[in-house]
Write a structure and sequence with these properties.
The protein has about 425 residues and is an alpha+beta fold. The protein contains 13 helices and 23 strands. The chain folds into 2 domains: about 200 residues, Enolpyruvate transferase domain (UDP-n-acetylglucosamine1-carboxyvinyl-transferase, Chain, Alpha-beta prism), CATH 3.65.10.10; about 210 residues, Enolpyruvate transferase domain (UDP-n-acetylglucosamine1-carboxyvinyl-transferase, Chain, Alpha-beta prism). It is globular and about 60 Å long. It starts with a strand and ends with a strand. Bound molecules: uridine-diphosphate-N-acetylglucosamine.
Length: about 425
């Protein structure tokens, strides 16, 4: 099994270009089948989750063409094959095939989604969205069967915002009869991106990015060409790295508006950065200040950056806290950081991080995607050699991470 090997403790300098958003593209790929035509997605991230979704498309007799610049998806001859292979269970976002296939065929059989373990991750709200459009469902032995005579647009009131359930309901509703209104919708930039993509294919969606989304069903969609938004979590990861090691680091091709919560947290920690259009230049900060972070739905501090900023908090002078409100078990990386010398206590939903601690390289395990990224950052600031086992979790979501880091002079490679 491959491992990531890092010789840490050196400053980094140069430019890191950010790729398209993982959490957008994993929805755009299933969404593309609603066109029953040809769709080209530009600026897609080169991550293993995209490869898995392409394999799933093949099972549906959907052709794909992929090169450095774009991913082309031709669903003209799509079949409604039951999606029951293990690939469906290897990532969370396979759940978007539920909404897309239901929308297109009014029926689908699928294996339930997998993905990183962050505590229980139910899909009851997704099912509430489908049921709200007059769909029936049965779950039996890890398979779900969705079926509707016809999908009818209605009002759907979610008890709290969910990214996945909001997008899945949009996917199912674009070809439904009449008007669907989603109340308490999630407002993440990826939801706006998916709505823009569907609208470019001929859908009528208004209000994405607010808590009320209105969808007027249309009879059919058509092909399009689309540019994915920059990945705010990838950008945030390298900004946090730059705050510790940037000499300086220039994070390029970002949308700073999507990073407001992180940037204000970095300001609280005393980090120096300059924003220039789609670039952020970030400097290593010697005297980092402690802070208190609470994860929240967008535009609050994203849970996906919580594990990554923990590494920075180990370098702040004083006591910091992180309160995780979205997932019940998202501190697994802390146990690995402790092995490297971090001083972290976990108290239910809160991590208490006492700094500044001197991290030393050792062998650690990437247990999930963002937790794995937090260990890469820790390895880069630590003295000596860090070995990260199970790097496949990291490659699920970071486009060309090895090359990008090597280009800014990081001493990092993958063992064979
Ligand atoms: C998406 C992102 C993930 C991010 C999360 C929150 C993708 C592929 N993944 O995940 O990276 O961490 O948003 O920003 O885009 N919940 C339920 N029932 C449901 C659905 C969700 O109880 O049917 C709960 C979840 O367990 C969690 C909370 O709602 O506690 C938010 O989850 P949600 O916004 O749905 O996250 P995901 O779509 O799974």
């Amino acid at each position: 099994m491959n491992k990531i090997i890092i010789h840490g403790g050196f400053p980094l300098e140069g430019i890191i270009n950010i790729d398209g958003s993982k959490n957008s593209v994993v929805a755009l790929i299933p969404a593309s089948i609603l066109s029953k035509s040809v769709v080209r997605i530009y600026n897609y991230p080169k991550i293993s989750d995209v490869g898995v979704l392409i394999d799933i498309l093949k099972e549906l007799n959907v052709n794909t063409k992929i090169n450095e610049t774009y991913l082309e998806i031709d669903s003209t001859n799509i079949n409604n094959t039951p999606l029951i292979t293990a690939k469906m269970g290897s990532l969370r976002a396979s759940y978007y095939f539920m909404g897309a296939l239901l929308g297109l065929f009014k029926e689908a059989v699928l294996r339930l989604p997998g993905g990183c373990y962050l505590g229980p991750r139910p899909i009851d709200l997704h099912l509430q969205g489908f049921a709200g459009l007059d769909c029936r469902y049965e779950i039996d032995d890890e398979l779900i069967h969705l079926q509707a005579e016809k999908l009818i647009g209605r009002e759907i009131h979610f008890p709290f915002p969910s990214v996945g359930a909001t997008i899945n309901t949009m996917l199912a509703a674009v070809l439904a009869e009449g008007k669907t209104i989603i109340y308490n919708a999630a407002k993440e930039p990826e939801i706006v991106d998916v709505a823009n993509f569907l609208n470019q294919m001929g859908a009528t969606i208004k209000g994405a990015g607010t808590s009320t989304i209105e969808i007027i069903g249309v009879k059919m969609l058509h092909g399009t060409e689309y540019q994915v938004i920059p990945d705010r979590i990838e950008a945030g990861t390298y900004l946090i790295l730059g705050a510790m090691l940037g000499n300086p680091l220039e994070i390029n091709k970002v949308n700073p508006h999507h990073l407001k919560a992180l940037l204000s947290t970095l300001t609280n920690c005393g980090v120096r950065y300059d924003i220039n259009d789609d670039k952020i230049i970030v400097h290593k900060t010697d005297k980092l200040l402690p802070t208190n972070i609470i994860t929240q739905v967008y535009p609050g501090f994203p849970t996906d950056l919580q594990q990554i900023i923990t590494t920075l908090l180990t370098q702040c002078n004083g006591v910091s806290t992180i309160t995780e409100t979205i997932y019940s078990d998202r501190f697994q990386n802390c146990h690995e950081l402790i092995k490297m010398g971090a001083n972290i206590e976990i108290d239910n939903k809160q991590a208490i991080i006492k700094g500044k601690t001197h991290l030393k390289g050792t062998e650690v395990v990437a247990k999930d995607l963002r937790g794995g990224a937090s260990l890469v950052l820790a390895g880069l600031i630590a003295e000596g050699t860090t070995i990260i086992d199970e790097p496949q979790h990291i490659l699920r979501g970071y486009s060309n991470i090895m090359k990008k880091l090597q280009k800014v002079k990081a001493n990092i490679h993958m063992s064979t």
